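Page 42, continued from yesterday. The earlier attempt failed because a stray header line got pasted into the input along with the sequence. Redoing it now with the clean sequence only.
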Amino acid sequence: MTGGASGLGDADELRRADELRALVSYHNDRYHRLDDPEIPDADFDALVRELRDLEAAQTQPVSADRDHRPADLPVGAAPSTLFTPVVHPVPMMSLDNAFGPDELRAWGDRLSRLVTGPAVLACELKIDGLALSLTYERGRLVQAATRGDGTTGEDVTANVATIDAIPAELGGASSGTPDLLEVRGEVYLSLGSFRALNERQAAAGLKTFANPRNAAAGSLRQKDPAVTAGRELSFWAYQVGEVRSDHGRVPDVLTRTHSGALAWLAERGLPVNPELRTVSSLDEALAFCRHWEEHRHDLDYEIDGAVVKVDALALQARLGATTHAPRWAIAYKFPPEERSTSLLDIRVSIGRTGRATPFAVLAPVVVGGSTVSLATLHNADQVRAKDVRPGDTVVVRKAGDVIPEVVRPVADRTHRTRTPWEFPKTCPSCGAPLVRLAGESDTFCTNLDCPAQRVARIAHFASRSAMDIEGLGEQRVELLVGRGLLADVADLYTFTAATFEGIGGFADVSIANLLAAIDASRTRPLHRLLVGLGIRHLGPAGSSALARALGSLEAIAGAEEDELAAIEGVGPVIASSIVAWFASPVNRAVTDRLAGAGLTLTEPGWSGPSGPGGGAPGVDGHTAGDPGAPPAPALHGRSVVVTGTLPGMTREDAEAAILARGGKSPGSVSARTWAVVAGEAPGAAKISRAAALGIPVVDAEGFAELLATGELPERAEGAVPTTAPLTPDP
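This time it went through. Structure tokens are written below.
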């Protein structure tokens, strides 16, 4: 992009640059001062990058009053008049961003031209929160201030005093504490606290928060500290700012390395993120970034990237900064999990139970690392509450493996002129009436023979969490149903190679693989079959509870509603649904055909019925709580977390094995966790959390022993696994 001889190109670019400056300033203010952004971070970053590129490319001035240097973009926003201003003695600068490996390497190349010899790099997580400066005088907290515009922030000392994670006084020897110490870090809201806060807000009829970052910022910047106190804010220290000692020497550790200074802060009671790593090469730094890009959802707080810094503080000082960012650090930004795009249409899909779910048809957009063109809108109430209308620009979110969803419309002047979407009256697949059940938020198709329901039921039966029939996805199911070859799940077990003759997309190898996968599914345990049957309200946990309590499909089908409801993990709603499902002659005919096809209709290892209340399976009708009962199952009441890939088992199989032995298998490590099972490529956050809490970690071999005996292998007592390392371990 260069200026043409006529100057027309430059004039167009300057007009666009002026437009971009106004947009950047507006959205920056919405984000930092009002804590109410209209567009996702990734869209703001795109505006900033376009503006920087335009200003850097300008070669021909067209007016005397315009400065064509690269834009000195704002850092944060001007402080609010609600708080006393605080001037930062050392400005709180923003960081330059790297959007991918090439840009990180380009930063490394620039660094190598300024530095003689190798430099140790410190790698840490980029917390998605609110920047905060803490000032300690002789070890006592005297002031807390927001970043503000980087030069002047807001005094939030009274609010910060309510945050339990931030010490009012530093621990350690007072003689080793500088007279003045500024600590910089990030205030954030854990995901659990965020969910709880939004639940409280909704129950009180108050506005809910769009994401944890906005919630943290809004919670910290309250005039009433009592409001902040109720928000469960947390803090990570990530930098030492100003340090001064008038009556003694500054501790050497605070002047040598960034990592050493953070370790010193941690020793004195300030929270420092445990994932900090020092590495000796840019390749190792990139491995750190890629690891956390993959494992970001293992954490109980949101991160939007990683930060790579030169570790030596003297070298940081020598490298200095540009007008807006230090040269010695860069933020490696992960693929955005929120982007804005056009909402082209709202349609309805029909699921296996007949539930009609509205979904958005979108202009394709890359979000969460993949291209998204469809996103869920959950139900009619959610569409109404979010007030999204075809033609809107909307924010779309995709986090990890979670189904993409439409979050909200982007405010504009034309939104209200568009026609609000209305839920259809009839099924888009079969034309039957759509009915909303009393007291529920869901709408259902009333036709059990609806083709869309049939496809969804069979695809669910074949899914990984159920019968795990590889090669039988929804598109293939739809094709086979459309050709009249597949009316229900029992038809799968009548297939031969001749079934697929003349059908496009089925070669000899794929036919053989599919038939082998169908045959292998006959041996799946009862609890997996129960999941596959798709009984409403009955999920994997309830299926495992049923299977280990009653042991056979016949016993479950013949049980009374009260008997089922008394099983722990089932309850009256699921019990009623089970009884209604088995009362259907159509469903019973399907299960009879499945039995005839040789499927496993009992739970492996089941040794007898459990007593009232679904106690642990015993023998002779006893339950674990009865006097004289046999011992409880191996893992009765114990919480075992599984992370990584175990040989010969899916994650669902491992969790089911724990449940079948009376244990619990939550998704995160806590103080109540009894053991962590680490397979290949385990989550680093879970392993780190286990180590911090002193929770034993066992490998795949130890897991087999644990399942067999209910006891930890000797080598696992308080140990870190001796098998596969974290992936990767920078």
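Notes: The longest strand covers residues 338-350.
Reminder to self: strip header lines before submitting.
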